[in-house]
Amino acid sequence: MTSPHLSNNPPPNTTRRIEVLVNGISSGHLVQEVGQIFYQYHHHSTPIANNPPVSLTMPVRIQSYLNVRLPPIFEMHLPEGYLEAVIKKQFAKLVTVDDFGMLNLVANTVKGRVSFNSQKLIDEAHSKATTAEPALTLNQLIAPNNTHLFEELVGRFALQSPLSGVQPKVLVGVENKATLKLDDYIVKAWGDDYPQLAINEFFCMTAARLAGLNVPEFHLSNNDALFIIKRFDLGDNGDCYGFEDFCVLQGKPRDLKYTGSYEQLAKSLKQFVSSHQRHPSLCQLFKLMVLNNALQNGDAHLKNFGILYANINDIAMAPVYDIVSTTAYITHDVPALTFKGSKRWQTKPQMIQFGIDHCALSEKQALQHYQQCEEALRLTRTKIQLRLQQEMGLIAPCANKVRVMEHLMGLMISG
User: Fold this and answer.
1) What is the C-alpha separation between 314 and 328, in angstroms, rounded?
2) Bridge-partner residues for 65, per DSSP?
3) Which of 347, 349, 376, 393 could hold 210 in an S-S bridge, CB 3.0 to 4.6 Å?
């Protein structure tokens, strides 16, 4: 996707408009008219005014950013998959739910460094988003007292959940008894196509944590039905950090998330992270690549990598997320992006060479990081084995759960 075209003046006859805020301060407007969408910074927001950009890829300037679809930084806030279908089913008869309309629907509930003020499309939508109900606790998510909790969460929080990805998930406000504030957690379920995805992701993320990667707080519900992970771009004291995935950084719409290569991803990381964060970020990328390869995560696409920053002088690779073994469901699945021009699972020597060639590691450093990943997989395999023994001790063990755990253990033998 090419860079947005320059336009000195906003197109006339605009039909829909969303105000965009950065760190709570009005930055500009996103406007749609027939056939085009443009973003216009406020005229007083020039580079010398020290106004922060909405994205690292969209510097503050007088000219508007013009395109035929939402710029990637705004598209990143759109619900996808399951959530998108739920919202469209509920509101399609009342409003136009194209991409701009979807963003308008969820805009007033988006929290983060970038937020929005939108037109009230329908009173029902916003009343649903603001209806006062008793706050949830983390324990209610980890130890649910009914089998329909996820459906209840979707009914309550769907319109407040601008989450990408096709997996059923919802963004939930959880009461923090220590701070008396609400913390945001992403709650993921699974459907018949990907049975036991929660336990799959839990053990894959456990391996990442044991390998020393930066991972958010995460939990598996007691009934193994839900994977719960804390949102990492909101600080405990109310600070909002900038997060941009690699579709945004490479200027690609979300439907091109499977295009490109891991070599290009490493190059983009070097381009955007701060100099003092470059080495730790590249080390994290290398270890994540090793784990994704060992666990055969065929969904490690551009939207499943990102950067995080408090300000443009301190940019680092974001905590890791969305690690699953896709070959537990798609036997002959392949990597999401190319590696050396092809989509194949790599050998240890090839991964070491990737660390040397693209992550600025010495051979010794690459070997040390690889060994950390191997040890993490070994420790995780032991944890899975104990969990599998518990399952097999039940009168009626779950066949899918056994199959997924055995699959993970098999991958971890040669990790």
Assistant:
1) 38
2) 6, 39
3) 376
